Give the backbone structure.
Amino acid sequence: MKTKIQKVTNMLNTLLVMFMLIGPLHPTVAGDLAAGEKAMSRGQWAVAVVRFKEAIDSRILTEPGYSMAYWNVHICSMKLGDKDGSAEALLGFIVHTQNHIDWVEKYPVGDKYIKLFKMRERLKIAARLLQTYWVEK
């Protein structure tokens, strides 16, 4: 059973991650991301794609927020058999992830999310998948 301190710590960690994804906390975008995650957990891939794209279209996510949203669109698109949707999402993921990594290398602040979300590893995976998609076409 979790203690009150553990519960508060978990809540603060969740808020920190949300702040890293969305600059100033915006309830609609936070709701889109949460709804996308919930839809993914239920296997509702098309619903998740719509919700993550709504968050992306808000234009207020941080670079890690865009990275996470695009990565999840890629995962859901693959589950739907939509390679074009996956490729488009991977391109967005690569752009925003590389921007964030470049920024952290220049200003060594905010590297926690790079490790938490395994950005470097996923960047390599995204590049390989895109190469595979182009070979198949």
